[in-house]
Each structure stands twice: as structure tokens, then as C-alpha cells.
Amino acid sequence: MNEQAKKTQSFGETLHGFVQSFGLPRLIIAGFLLLLFVMAPVVGADFFTQLTNTVNRFSWNAVMVLAMVPMIHSGCGLNFGLPLGIISGLLGATIAIELGITGGLTFFAAILIATPFALVFGTFYGWLLNKIKGGEMMIATYVGFSSVSFMCMMWLLLPYHSPNMVWGLAGKGLRTTISLEGYYDKVLANFLQINIGNLSIPVGTLLFFAILAFLMWAFLHTKTGTAMTAVGSNPEFAKAAGVNVDKMRLLSVIMSTWLAAVGILVYEQGFGFVQLYMAPFNMALPAVSAILIGGATVNKASIPNVIIGTFLFQGIVTMTPTVMNSMIHMDMSEVIRVIASNGMILYALTRKTEATK
Amino acid sequence: MEKAKAPLLEMRNIKKDFFGNQVLNDINLTLQEGDVLGLCGENGAGKSTLMKILFGMDVIRETGGYSGDILLNGEKVNFSTPFEALEAGIGMVHQEFSLIPGFTATENIVLNREPMKKNVLSEIFSDRMNTLDRKEMSGIAENSIERMGFKIDQNMTISNMPVGHKQFTEIARELSKKQLRLLILDEPTAVLTEKEAEALLDSIRAMSAKGIAVVFITHRLHEILSVCNKVVVMRDGLVVSDVPAKDTTVEEITRWMVGRSVNAGSVNTDARDKKDAKTIMSIRKLWVDMPGEIVRNVNLDIKEGEILGIGGLAGQGKLGIPNGIMGLCDAGGTVEFDGEKIPLNSPRSCLDKNIAFVSEDRRGVGLLLGESLEWNVAFPAMQVQNKFLKSYLGGLIKWRDEKAIHEITQKYIDEFQIKCTSSRQDAKELSGGNQQKVCLAKAFALEPKFLFVSEPTRGIDVGAKSLVLEALKKFNRESGVTVVIISSELEELRQTCDRIAIVSGGKIAGILPATASSEDFGMLMISQVK
Q1: Residue A27: inside a domain, yes or no?
Q2: What ipTM goes with this model?
Q3: Strands B213-217 and B36-41
Q4: pLDDT, tens digit, 9 for 90 and up, residues A233-263
Q5: A223–B400: do the CB atoms touch at under 8 Å?
Q6: pLDDT per residue over A295-309, tens digit each?
Q7: Hey, which residues 261-320 in chain A have their CB within 8 Å of chain B?
Q8: A214 in contact with B, Cβ within 8 Å
Q9: A296: domain CATH number?
């Protein structure tokens, strides 16, 4: 009998342990997402189309969520300054188009051109964050805001001439949305794409993310990556062990900024458009909430956190409007999208408090 | 009549485990009004956990609660928050301070129980608009400081106070609560100087006379004998003895605590005279700006292969010496190591010269609390000496060698008998003594030529203490490493070191062989106190 009791107890413990390690909130969200998937066919939305949408959106956004990882590891907190990196990416994209490069090659040219911008911006941003240790996230938010506003002016003033990008009548100043047709629209997504009925999987994009995620994972296993994690965990300890704390933080910020630049290019190739002006403004919060939902805390994050978080967040954001619309036969998609994604952020920010040491 | 009255506190069959690790097993305790109970035991014996249960701390509930009963005046209680415990008249002074650094002593003492003054706004709106009655506040604070019997400046902000005074502020805060019936003091004297500790013992006696029961946790056993009327010794989660204090001795308690006899108080029998050895480190005109431990002008020659002790009273600057040389605090002057000058304010250049440091601030500097023991042990050696790494592509990629890291950690876990569930356990889950052992392992893994060890035994128990000191001695003897131990406990230095330098007023007051008499050391300690 005793043995029996022990068994049940150990089962209860295992379950408890599982809930603890996976996190109750994540279980609830995963459950909700599962419910949405089950509901979809019931209310008349095609299951495979929905799954395709979710996977697509996952593939567009995953790299930007990955960009959160280095700064979390180095203790700089969540990168609310993601727009800065995004702007580097946008500069890369627009300059590549301006240079007259066409086809899929534009994508790689854009990454190449965006890199020096990301390095310079990242260095400045990292230098700034090293000056204000302890208040990184607040300053990061404003770095993001102000860089977006500054670029709103620059997009108009910079001497772009490509007729595909500038305003038709004036002949100067970039348009708010630029179509990527003829450039790198779906360049990754179409690579090795799998199509079965209504289900289509953008294997190329997923592979591209997988490569970056693998590189990040590998980096965190190297000497430098270990030092970065230690800096985030206890900067005093790292200093006493001879690590240059400021240098590690700077490196993490540069990495994060570069990943954001690549991330926006991946997003654009899936979405099919370059969005300028206020668009980068709305990119940071979803990425932040995604990684938090994935189980990361303010000073700990892993690749599985990125994958799970992005999938859950994008799944909910994609599925909720469709299922709801079908249920109540009214187009409320935008309203629901805003409620869902802002609700997520609110939830994600409450999670932040759990991250205390 | 008195006998028939239910005891103030009774704990019955208390059990508790952390992550499957049984830390308390069938604990039974009773406490009458005015009793002073001395609770002792090695680190990790379960003393702090037991007190946390009594005080209803969150960690207990978060880790699955406890089993057994707690009775207060014969009534069963189960506190789910410390507030309920406070309500019931239990006060606790923690090992770590829970004070607001920017507030004055007075403000901390009456925090959240401030006397209020009504004003126009609060009449209209609610009591939340009341203003603080500063005069009354300072009256309460003054009163409780007086009851405590040790004078502290009630208008000084906490951040400006020496540690000892912070401790007294905490005690005064507890004393200012009118309903206080039971006060728990968790290692209150660990940070106090001898004089302060004596004052604390006096105030404990005064409290006991007023009918307040005190649970007094400490590693300083003679304090227990001088102030307590009852001694409870714990070992590995069990109460091993529960006796009246007058019937026991320090030796007996020590034996109960460690389960074996410890030879305490003996002077290092194999102290060596290294006069002829070459000078490995020479320090000239060193100043260090370390808050509370300012070094003004230190000149010191350290001989190769010796164990040098640096002692002195708290606040005289002994801790500043290693922190300054290792680049953790601003410093100036010249330090030569092995004939070469070491640049100051640069931790890396010291580490590159094979000088290692075990910090006195275990939790702040010494450990990655949120990472595994493996990381803690291997990290400095990995960063400084490229150990535990596999190189690929001609050294371009330096990959962490998890296997080597695991092996080295396991080696030190066995060697130092570190109590843990595995080498992957987080450092924060270990008890103080075991954390200290991890810090040592971290330094040993660097295989240094020269080792600074700062307060290696602060806040750890007798068993771990002797293990740590023995390990240092063995390390010195077997590898020929020069070791400098900085400690406030002179007896320890005398047991371990060859020579002992005494710091007073930010300078070296003198260097004596370990065999010199305590009186001589005492004279040096106070020679230049400012």
C-alpha cells in the first residue's frame, strides 16, 4: 500500500515538476491555441489554411524574436530598442533596391548592406546602454522611439531615386509601402516549399531561421558566449573573473541589432512589402512578448523559448480573429487582433516580475 | 500554576524537504515565556529553515509547505505570510538585512507602523492622506533603542551605517512592536565586533527579563552559554540534543554539532619560519578606496610559499587590501609580483599572473547564484586560462567542454564534501558553508601561484570551517602556493598561518609569528584605531 502511495505521489510530483518547468501560463496559452485549432474546422475555417498561416507568420517573425536572446543573456534586458536594428535592415533593403539589384539576390545584398549600419548603430546603442546600467529597458524603449521618428524625416530627405520606391508625383521621398515584387518577395519561402493540398510550408525560411538559431546556440556554448551569460547572471562575478563586462554587453547589443536587421528582411520577404516610417515602431513589442511567453525571463532565455514563444504568440494572433470572425459573422479581425496582441503584451509584462533573482 | 500554562511556543514533528532533499526531520521544540533558546548546528543543519517555517516565509509555501504542528500558547497556528506571524507577536531579525538603505534608522524602525497625524485632506478623503507624526516616530525609535541598550544614531541613513549598527536597527525595529512575544535572531553577532556583540547579549538578557522569549541562532558558542538558558543542537535536520545551558560546555556542543570532536583553539603547530624565502609580492604605499574598509598606506612583503594571515578589527581596512590589489576597488600605489609590477584596477592582469581571489562577498561577487555549480567552478579558469575548452578551426572557435567541466566540479564536490543534489544544482540552493566551498573550488581550479582568501569562514559552521582551513593548508603544503588569508577571527589565523599581519587604521600595525600571544595581537589591533 505504501508503495502505491509512493507511486501516486511520484506521479503527482512529476506532473507538478512538468507544470513547474513548462510554466502554467504557457500551458494555458498552448491549451487555448489548441482549442482554436480544434474550433477552426467546426466554425468553417479550413484547418490546413490556418496551420499554413500560423507557420508562415512564425517563419517571418522568428528571427526578430531570436534577436532578443543575446541582450537577455548579457543582462541588458529585453531589447525594446529593436526598431534601431530594424532601421538598419530597412536601409539595407532600400539601398539594395536603389542600387538596381533585382531578383532574389537583393535579399543577400540587403543583408550585406545592412550589416555595417547595424554595427555602427549597435555600437552607439551599446555604448549608451553601458552608461545607464540598471535602466536599460527604459532607455532602449526611447532609443527605439526616437530612431523611428528620426528616420521618418530621413526617408523623405535621403536622395533615393528608384521609381519603384519614391512617391510618383514628387519623384523624391520614399513611399510608406514598397512592393518587393521583382526583388526578394518570397525568396526564402519558395525555396524547397512543400505544398500538400491547402497546407504549404515555407521550408526555406524555416531553414534560414534554423541556421541562425543554431549559430546562436553554438555561440552560447563558446567561451565568449559563456562569458556573456555570466555577465548577465552576475556582472560582479564576471568582473572578478577577468571578463570585460562592458565589452560583452556591447557585443550582445551589436548582435541583437544585427539580428533585428536580418529579422526585418526575413519578415519582408515573407510579407512581400517593405514598410517604412512608423512601421518599425510596432515590431518590438510583439517580439518581446513572444519570447516572454516562450518562458524566457529578463535574464534567462534559450532557443526553445524563442521557438515555443513565437509559435504560441503568432498562433494566437493569427487564429483568434479568424475563428472569432467565423463565429460571429462580422469583420472584427482588426479589433480582435489589437486586443489579442496587446493582451499578450500586458500578460508578458506581468511575467517580468517573476524574473527577479 | 505556572506549569499548567501552555508553553509560549511548541513545535511538534516538524518536517520539511526541498526538492526531495530532506532538511528537517521530526523537530520538537518547546519554549516558555522569557526563555532564551540557543539554536546551533552546522550550516545546512536546518536552523534557518526551521525559523523560516515558524515565521511563515514565502519560500516554505512555494517549495511545498511543511508537515507537523506549531502551537502558540497552546493554539495551533499556521502562518501563511510573515505578516500573520508578526501579528501573533513573532519578530525576526534576518541573516541578510531587510532595511531600506535610503531611510534613516527611525524611519526603518517604524516602517509601515508610523504614527499618523490627521489633516484637512485626510478628513475629506481617507486616512491615506494622513501625514507622518515625525515627533512621535522619533519617540518610538528612541524608546526602542533605549530598551535595546546600545546607542545608535537614529537619524543616520542606513546606507551610511557600519554593518553592526544596521543589525541593531533591525533589532530595535522588532523591539518597537508592542505585541512582540518571541524574537528570532538569526546569526545576529556574525557581523558585530566584540563590544557590539556584548551589548547585544545584554539586550537579550533585558528582553528575557521582560518576558520576551528569544531564539538565538549563532555559531559563537560561548555567547550561547553566557546568555541562553536552553541549548538545542541540530545536525542534518535532526535535533541531536536539547539541554539546559548550565549543564553543558562549548566542547560538548561542538561535538554534538559535528558528530565528532573538534580541536578548537589550538595554535598552528607546524608554523614555519620563511624568513629566507624570496619575496613573491611586495606592496608599497597601497591605498584602496573600499567603502567601510579604507586602506591608507600599506607596505607589506609576502614570502613565497608561506601562509600569511591578515587580521584586525572590522572597518580597519584589512578587506580593502585584496580587493584593491585584485582590481575590484579603486586603488593606488605599487604592487610587485615576482619582480614585475602589476597594474592596479585591472582584475584581468592579476588573474593572468596566476593570482586568485576568494571574495568575502560570496553572494555578490563570489558566485553565479542562478547558474550551476559546474559553471561556478569552471568559469574563471575557462575565461582566464582557456581551460575546459575544446578548440576548433585553429582556435577560432572555443567550445565549452562540458565533460571536463563536470569532472573538475565532481572532483571538488568529493574533495570538499559539498552537499548538493548534483553538480548541476544552482548555486543559490546551497547553504552558506557549501557555497563557500564552491568559491574555494573556483579559485583552486585556476591552479594559482598566489591566493588571496578573504573571510573564508564568515557565517559558516565549525565543521565546514575546519574543512576549509585544512583545504587551504593542504593546498599550500602540496602545491607550494602562497596563501594570504584575511579574517576577523584571530584564532583561526593562528591555527592556520605562519605569520600574521595586523591591520589597524588602514596601515599594517605589525607582523607577528602565529605563536605570539593573543595579548600581543590585541595590542596591535587597537594601536592605530581611528
Answers
A1: no
A2: 0.78
A3: parallel
A4: 888 899 888 889 999 999 999 999 999 999 9
A5: yes
A6: 887 778 889 989 998
A7: 299-300
A8: no
A9: 1.10.3470
